Amino acid sequence: MRDLLTVFRKEVRENLRDHRSLISALLFATVVMPLLVALLVNLTVRRGQTQDSKPVALAVVHAERAPNLVADLRQFRIDVVNADLDDAAARAAIRRQQHRIILVIPDNYASQLSQGLPAPLLLYTDSSDSANPAEVARVRAVLGHHASEIARLRLMARGIDPMVLSAIAIQDVDVATPTSRSVLILGTLTVIILMTMLMGGLHIVTDATAGERERGSLEPLLTVPVRRELLIYGKILAACVFMVLTLTLSVCAMALTLRHVGLEQLGMNQNLGVVKVLELIGCCVPLAPLGASLMTIVAAYTRSYREAQTYLGLILAIPTVPLIFASALGLRPTAWLMMIPSLSQHFMVIGLLRMEPVSALYATLSVSVSLILGGAAAYVAGRLYHREALLG
Amino acid sequence: MIEVRRLHKRFGPVTAVQDVSFMARDGCITGLLGPNGAGKSTTLRMLYTVLKPDSGDAFIDGISVCEQSLEARRRMGVLPHGAGVYPHLTARENIEYFGDLHGLGRAECAQRAAQMIELLDMTDFADRHTKGFSQGQRLKTALARALVHGPQNILLDEPTNGLDVMAVRNLRTLLQKLKATGRCILLSSHVMQEVAALCDEVVVIAGGKVVTAGTPEELRARAGTPDLEEAFVRFLEPAASQS
Q: Do A257 and A156 reside in the same domain of the chain?
């Protein structure tokens, strides 16, 4: 234990003196992290606004053929722009994004309408345009409203109660609170938080393994009367400390930024107090030993500092894999899923941000499975450093 | 005292060390002499336990490096080939780190480090980060680090590599001092003159085998030439023609 702490102290001291790595970690937490958070939050808030309040631009061909319809569209905040396009030109205009939605009123529109027959309208859109569906839906809704208004008048003219058409009345009840909606975007923050944490240990692991070998200080170190695995555990422990430090910095930076940027718009006023920040940090920390040990294992197989840096950089991406699957499949936390490191931390962070009560079982599973796997990985790393090939 | 008994080591298809046996006595400087790739480093690495022999064993003060490697390591001070130091620590911290790992108490560790700094004439740069150190300063740091726990047996792999004349001379003086205190010193080199100037016993290794061993005088006599370099070449010729 004494030897382990000796190695630990030395690695911490040495890494603290390496200003380049410290500054990059600090910079990430205090500059990059807040910027990312601000950007993400702003984007969500702005998108939300676009959907309800911003006028939708609609190009209408032959608007003069349907003055009532155009008046109705204008009334529902749809910006009607007159355009003169034939079928081919309309298609081209959409493809070039000159217009995003085009409504063509054919010449038989008025005559069909006056004869009480279905009046044709052509709506040109690009369904692959991701920003579009909400706008198209609004245009359709207004058109539908106009159509049902005409139908209502026709029925009344024939002495029939328009209510006969409304056999069912559907009422949408959306229970999404601003908080739970914002969790979607905050969920992506867990990826950033976990990656930042692992990044905090990247330099120290590289330096303590591949760096030590490249400098030629590994061989002398292996001649001291200390079991090799203890040397490795000391290094892993030091990496964990730096990971936790970066994690703390970045979660604090995130919380502070969220307080200043659009927290009210996301409906999360009192959410991110000191306790919440500590809880957030606490649920991510158990992942640190696993990350540090995996990095140490990978570093054992690399031949140089540069090579180690490249491969360890790839490790940073590993925790995102379960998260991508989870969001693609729309997974909800279950006991089994809480046994997957990084995914369980993701669920915990989201739960905390949603202000949901933390399930004791889930929390225990998340913490214990991550720690157990971390211990196992540390053991493997210790074994690997017994290999002779290590010296290169 | 170091006793090497029939060490064998293979790396894949290559036999690096084959049936190597020799003795290095206390109060004596023993030189492992041989051309590059002769198996000197591999032999030393097996002695200081970073490599495991395929067969055979070596004993440090009677302690087996295979059976009790931790105990054997306690009795050795090792300067591996091209030994590096920690750039962000000062020379003193580098030395104390190893003292600590050798189990010295805090006060003893500081005292021993100060002694080594004095002994190796490192006072001027002892409290500077080793980052910008010259080759000679780095070597002194690494040597002080290897000797901080006052080991009875001292193993040095090509210690004079890359050193200037003055530094080599200082190292020789230091090794003579250590020899006078009854230490067992084993060093490897591919430079004949160096070995002749310093060693009481020479073990010539080539192609992973011990070619001959004895005092420099005995080697000269055996080769039938007063010139040690000539003698060295003559000993190596049969080994070279074999491989």
A: no
Q: How far apart are CA A203 and CA A239, in angstroms?
A: 9
Range(s) of the domain holding residue B17? 2-75+153-242
A87 CB near a chain B CB, below 8 Å? no
Give A220's contacts in chain B (Cβ within 8 Å): 78-80, 83-84, 98, 142, 145-146
Which of these three, B130, B151, B172, is where a domain ends? B151
Shared-domain flag, residues B143 and B90: yes
Largest CA distance in chain B: 56
Model ipTM? 0.93
DSSP state of A118: P
- Same domain membership, residue A188 and residue A125: no
Q: How far is CA A371 from CA A200, A284, A290, B29, in A?
A: 18, 11, 7, 51
Same domain, A15 and A139: no
Q: Which residue of A has its CA nearest to B44?
A: A223
Does residue B29 sit in the same domain as residue B71?
A: yes
Question: What's the rounded Cα separation, in Å, for the pair B47 and B40?
Answer: 11
Would the pTM count as exceeding 0.80? no
pLDDT digits (tens, 9 = 90+) for A341-373: 988 998 888 888 777 788 889 999 999 999 999
Give the count of domains, chain B.
2
Residue A356 is encoded by which pair of tokens?
Answer: 């949901």
Of the candidates A59, A56, A70, which has an alpha carbon nearest to the alpha carbon of residue A139?
A56
CB-CB neighbors (< 8 A) of B145 in chain A = 220
Residue-range definition of the domain harbouring residue A343: 2-47+177-391
Residue A257's CB: how many other CB atoms inside 10 A?
20
